[in-house]
Structures are given as structure tokens and as C-alpha cells.
What we know:
By secondary structure, the chain is of the alpha+beta class.
Amino acid sequence: xxxxxxxxxxxxxxxxxxxxxxxxxxxxxxxxxxxxxxxxxxxxxxxxxxxxxxxxxxxxxxxxxxxxxxxxxxxxxxxxx
Length: 81
């Protein structure tokens, strides 16, 4: 079944499973990378609302994703400094 799903559909299923698991810590790497802007907004709003009860660590290069974070750590290479 999974081979007929788009990347965005697989990503939304993975995020839904993470929400249903309801663990106290969520580690998400590029959670909105394959999503359109409408679904990205819905997921980010849900993550923001869920963050009241748990710790969520986001890894992303998208500013739109990182805008929901309370604290942001930015990694730079030696040539960026």
C-alpha cells in the first residue's frame, strides 16, 4: 500500500502516528518538507498546540517551520562565521 502514496501522504501518516503515540518527547527532522503550504500550516499549528504538554525538537532549514519554536539553535559552518 505504501508504494502508491506520495511523499507528502507518507509524511502526513508518519506525523499522525507520532501525534497518536503521544510521547513526552518528539524529534522531527524536516517534518514539513514534502507538504504543501496548507498542510504545512495545519501541521505546524498542531505541533504548536501539542508543545504545551511535551518537548518537541525540530530540525529544519525552513524558517516557516522554525517560527513555531520557543528556542532556536542555528548551526553554521566555519565559512559562515
